Amino acid sequence: FCLLKNEMRLVIFFLCAYAPKTAAGHCKWAEVLKDLEQIKASKDIDVSLYTANTDEDKECQEPVIRCFFLETKVILQECLIKKCSKTQDVFNMWKNGNASLENKKWNSTTSAKCKECEEYEEKNFTEFIQSFEKVIQKECK
């Protein structure tokens, strides 16, 4: 009986240790969303960025997300130059996003109707972050 009790404790321990990872891991973009939350209130980031449309066709999702991450590199460079208060959070977002992009299996072909990043309108930092959040949230559904 004691052995069974100890085994049950181990089973419960492993289930408890594994469950939070499963719940949080349902979306590999969760870390990026946390980073976006950290930087969106920043007052010292003042850049105009190509901002992809949040309502692009599903087949254009990869180039849209890649566009957002290309632009996060612009934010990071700006923060490094101006020593923004959120430089570390921007770096984390860029790093986490690139890791998620590398882990995702994308279609190697992109539809000809998908826009290049530079074809999108330039918007201010706040609008960019709001659109970026919508795109990532859509990807998490």
UniProtKB/TrEMBL annotation:
The keyword Cytoplasm does not apply. GO terms for molecular function: cytokine activity; cytokine receptor binding. GO terms for biological process: immune response; neutrophil activation; positive regulation of cytokine production; positive regulation of immune response; positive regulation of T cell proliferation. One of its GO terms (cellular component) is extracellular space. Its main location: secreted. Coiled coil: none annotated. Keywords: Cytokine, Disulfide bond, Secreted, Signal. It holds the Pfam family IL15. Belongs to the IL-15/IL-21 family. It comes from the Eukaryota. The lineage of its organism: Eukaryota, Metazoa, Chordata, Craniata, Vertebrata. InterPro entries: 4_helix_cytokine-like_core, IL-15, IL-15/IL-21_fam, IL-15_avian. It is found in: Secreted. This is Interleukin. The keyword Disulfide bond applies. Residues 1-24 form the signal peptide. It comes from Calypte anna.
